[in-house]
Design goal:
Blueprint (H helix, E strand, L loop, with lengths): L2 E6 L4 H14 L9 H10 L6 E7 L2 E10 L3 E9 L5 H15 L4 E4 L8 H10 L3 E11 L14 E3 L6 H11 L6 H9 L5 H6 L12 E5 L2 E11 L2 E9 L8 H16 L3 E7 L3 H9 L3 E11 L9
Helix pairs in contact: 3-4
Bound molecules: coenzyme A.
Length: about 300
């Protein structure tokens, strides 16, 4: 029988080595929901911070764990590790059920499925534990970089990121996703004290944030939209493209995207990746017009008890 443990603070550092091993062995973390920088943030934070891990151990060895944060109504599970054994399905299932039991009155979001485990098996496990499945697409734009000219929409000024924009970016993200299918995730992110992932990335420092290609559009002093990018070597990631609902349909999203794609070649980037929800039709339309190709799909798993978290 496995034992269950909640690891916190310095205790988490024991998991760092496992994650590193896993990351090197699989090299699959780049495919995960939030992008390649997420794992680095986690590994970076694993020696402290406010994440916890729910770990299954056997004979003192960690066999599986899920890193998560808790808020007043929600739990955000940001990473699952299941050791490579024939018991993977059983271990994942146990982790998911234990999470539900421990945090019974909460809304739980699993941001990433296990990267190298059969997705149908994972879906079955999460569905049987009462979770909903949200589908996300990973999309890629790559050489020969054919980017059609896009006219600059009138009435906006464009700025590079600076720290003074942080609060406005957070407010913009919250306003823009209010009516969006990703909302349960955003709501959980807010409740667990995380900023939207994009903002965490902006704050993650020069190693991952692609400052020169990220830009923000202002209408007067109001932030109307923004595109923020990160990078991993020669791979560029759009971590968020967002336009305030009030300024949509004026060509701003298109222009922000165009500026990034046009900057790829001079920046030495070979490809540009992003994740988008399968039911985000306006965004999907736009990416397809720019010749983004669908690479693969990914899933978020969302569980809600209906208590404490509204409108799910
Ligand atoms: C996606 C988003 C950035 C588009 O911004 P926008 O400024 O309204 O977009 P644009 O006016 O530049 O339109 C760009 C293209 O998007 C598509 N589009 C825009 N609004 C649309 C709608 N209501 N329905 C379908 N397609 C739409 C069209 O293909 C359009 O191209 P066209 O003008 O050549 O027809 C904006 O809707 C948004 O912020 N959504 C919430 C955040 C989000 O989902 N971001 C993407 C996450 S990956």
């Amino acid at each position: 029988m496995s034992e269950i443990k909640i690891l916190q603070g310095p205790e988490l550092s024991s998991l760092g080595l496992l994650l590193e091993k896993y990351r090197r062995g699989q090299n699959k973390f780049g495919d995960m929901i939030i992008g390649p920088f997420w794992v680095n943030l986690i590994v970076e934070k694993i020696t402290g911070g406010d994440e916890k891990a729910l770990a299954l151990t056997k004979d003192g060895q960690v066999e599986a764990f899920v890193i998560h944060k808790t808020g007043s109504n929600s739990v955000l599970a940001s990473m699952v590790y299941v050791d490579k054994t024939e018991r993977r399905e059983a271990l994942l299932s146990e982790l998911v059920f234990r999470m539900r039991k421990i945090y019974s009155a909460k809304s739980i979001v699993f941001g990433d499925p296990v990267p190298d485990m059969d997705i149908e098996a994972q879906k079955r496990i999460f569905l049987s534990a009462g979770f909903r499945v949200l589908e996300r697409y990973k999309m890629e734009f790559s050489a020969p970089y054919e980017v059609k000219e896009v006219d600059r929409p009138p009435g906006f000024t464009f700025k590079k990121y600076s720290k003074t924009l942080d609060r406005k970016v957070a407010r913009l993200d919250q306003r823009a996703y209010r009516d969006h299918p990703d909302e349960p995730i955003l709501e959980v992110l807010t409740d667990t004290g995380s900023n939207p992932p994009s903002l965490r990335i902006v704050r993650s420092g020069p190693a991952f944030f692609e400052r020169s290609l990220s830009s923000f559009a202002l209408s007067g002093s109001e932030l109307a939209g923004g595109i923020y990018c990160t990078h991993m070597g020669k791979e560029l990631w759009i971590s968020n493209l967002v336009v305030d609902p009030h300024f949509r349909g004026q060509g701003l999203g298109k222009y922000l995207l165009f500026k990034v794609l046009k900057g790829m070649k001079p920046g030495g980037y070979r490809r540009c990746m992003l994740m988008v929800s399968a039911d985000n039709h306006s965004a999907l339309n736009m990416y397809k017009k720019f010749r983004f190709k669908l690479k693969r799909n990914r899933f978020n798993f969302v569980y809600t008890t209906g208590q404490g978290v509204k409108n799910h």
